[in-house]
Amino acid sequence: MSELVAPVHKQPLMSNGFTLANTPDRLGLLQPSDPGQPIEALWEQYQAQGYLWLKHLLDRDEVLAFRRRFFASFRDMGLLAPGSDPMDGIYAGAGDDRAAIREKMAEIARSAAYEAFCLSKPILQFYEEFLGGPVYLHKRMILRFTRPHDAGATGAHYDLTYLRGGTDRLCSSWIPIGDIPVSSGGLVYLEGSDSWGRKMEAEFAIKNAELPPAERISAYNQNMTQGGYVTKNLPELAERLNTRWLMADYKAGDMVVHSGYMIHAATTNENEHGVMRLSTDIRYQLLTDPIDERWKNHWNPNDGL
Question: On the chain, which terminus has fewer CB atoms closer than 10 Å, C or N?
Fold first, then answer.
């Protein structure tokens, strides 16, 4: 994968008001994987790293076509810069109808076009081979877009916090819908954190043992931090665990696969051209494994998960 180059970002990486230390011992590069490798080699990488950054797995043109379709849906809500191509996703800067946008987001999440995107042939074929059997796509699939310079960002977390009602043998996929360079606020992964996430979840299982069943699996019970996050202070977490946040310049057509225990977060979108970041989070598991009932419903921004 000789195309990998060090991401270039003119400004320091920010997340929720905290600046990530730009030093080799605290900030590094996500390692790419070729999806054409034998599945055994990919599985070994996944087990060792807690993630796979699969380059060019999806058809780039199809990804960009969905991006255009998505942003075109908001043409009359003040979200897009006047006269701009919806595929570019250029933010108008202000005046967008946020209530109407949230309603439209929930509508798109129920659409056949979105489901077809998440069930595209390369994704389905990969997971059936990777997991070794018929697979289930969780119905709760999440679409996210971030406006430039929005101070809020997803805090550090691992997905099993929100998926305790089913198997832990699921895989999360984060798919950039469009090119997402480091400056546009893509996901960052905490190096080596799969094992730390497993340790944390084992400790929570002991603390939660006496809670009622619904509370026991909730990310918002009395033993959890706000929002189910490990923390919003990304630099402090890397310092405390003596590890690095791994970043990447993502391209349309890439897909990241990570374990339910891998700690990850988002950084602030500082795109200098006003480009909005668009991505989707989806989860696959074997059809025969237990499924969290809460994830059998369509996602909407107010579903409490």
Answer: N
Nearest to 174 by CA among 220, 200, 223, 141: 141
Check which CATH number belongs to the domain holding 94 and give it.
2.60.120.620
Smallest CA-to-CA distance from 279 within 145, 151, 154 is with 145
Whether residue 117 lies inside any domain: the answer is yes
| Residue 13 within a domain | no
What is the distance between the alpha carbons of residues 291 and 226, in angstroms, rounded to a whole number?
A: 25
The token duo for 59 is: 């058809």
pLDDT value at position 94? 86
Q: Evaluate whether residue 95 is within a structural domain.
A: yes
pLDDT recorded at residue 3: 39
A 10 A CB-CB count for 279 gives 21
For the four alpha carbons of 37, 39, 41 and 43, in that order, the dihedral sign comes to: positive
Q: What is the mean pLDDT of the chain?
A: 93
Spatial separation of the C-alpha atoms in residues 213 and 165, rounded to whole Å = 9
Task: With respect to residue 2, please indicate whether it lies within any of the assigned structural domains.
Answer: no
Q: Which domain holds residue 219?
A: 30-296
pLDDT tens-digit readout, 198-219 = 999 899 889 888 999 888 888 8
Closest CA relative to residue 67, chosen from 252, 273, 256:
252
Within 77-234, strands assigned E span 135-137, 142-146, 171-176, 187-190
Cα→Cα distances 42→52, 56, 252, 296, Å:
8, 15, 21, 29
Closest to 249 in 3D by CA, of 152, 180, 162: 180
Q: Do the Cβ atoms of 12 and 19 come closer than 8 Å?
A: yes
**pLDDT tens-digit profile of 104-162?**
999 999 999 999 999 999 999 999 999 999 999 999 999 999 999 998 899 999 999 99
For the chain, the distance separating the N- and C-terminal CA atoms, rounded to the nearest angstrom, is 37
Question: Has residue 1 got a pLDDT over 80?
Answer: no
Q: What's the pLDDT score for residue 261?
A: 97
